[in-house]
Amino acid sequence: MLSGVRSAARRKLFRADPADLLGVANWPEAGVAGHHQQQHWWAALEHNFVLESTDDEYGGVVVDADRLPADKAAFARSLAASLSYWKSVGKKGVWLKLPVDRAEFVPLAVKEGFKYHHAEESYLMMTYWIPDEPNMLPANASHQVGVGGFVINDQMEVLVVQEKYCGSSLDGVWKLPTGFILASEEIYTGASREVKEETGVDTEFVDVVAFRHAHNVAFQKSDLFFICMLRPVSSEIKIDETEIQAAKWMPLEEFVKQPFIQEDHMFQKIMDICIQCLRKCYCGLTPHHVVSRFDDRTSTLYYNVAEPEDVNCSAT
Hints:
Layout: H1 2-15, H2 18-22, H3 32-47, E1 53-55, E2 61-63, H4 72-88, E3 93-99, H5 106-111, E4 115-120, E5 123-129, E6 143-151, E7 157-163, E8 178-180, H6 187-199, E9 203-218, E10 221-232, E11 244-251, H7 252-256, H8 259-262, H9 265-278, E12 286-291, E13 298-303
Parallel strand pairs: 2-3, 6-10
Antiparallel strand pairs: 1-2, 3-5, 4-5, 6-8, 7-11, 9-10, 12-13
Helix pairs in contact: 3-4
């Protein structure tokens, strides 16, 4: 009974006008090219070859990574038919996310003209630009974001570390705790987290005193590095022995006199700014949560709001 219903539905489907079924305003005219294109569309309808996808905001499609075909042959057929269909309906960019358990599909996508976009531990993202015009798809992320914590106590001692694994230029150097921001992590949260992980010291965020922008740092990516002033709320040190050789509280004067600081213009400038903050001659950037009408999401905007009591350059 069920098979009879399916057969009747199939006959009804293929008596319908192809343009109505596919939502295509202009069914291709007769000719070799039009004939081949029609073949792709019929195959997509008859065998459900068009890949499951959703439309994005820019006239493109995002393929559903959870509903990809199970084998290479089916994927190859679906991908070719899907590209023909998407082209016929005027789609632009195609985003194809291939999970690691579908890695065998990558050569098939490359053969169709897909390009690598970015990769994570569990997937590879590939893209395809359909129109015969400049590719408007956004490039892969261009930056990594790092933080450094300037933690100073009431005795004017700075929390410093010696890294276990470092280049020869940092061998034996006492430096600020540093690290990278995690995905979806705030700068102020990441700074305190890195200090806690490396030294065991709990801190409160005060402000961003400066940031550095550098290029071609890691695999040709650019780097943003934020120096954050933090207030210690504990003092006991317990190092992370997997990456830290030693940590201690060092007098500020001793710290800045290290050749590593004195002979490096950037670090010397960073320390000058931090000292001016301590003297209340300089105010850094503090985080403020705001909502934008463009996406109705809460973001963090860093800016300077200095009250008269916050700035007193005559202080020593």
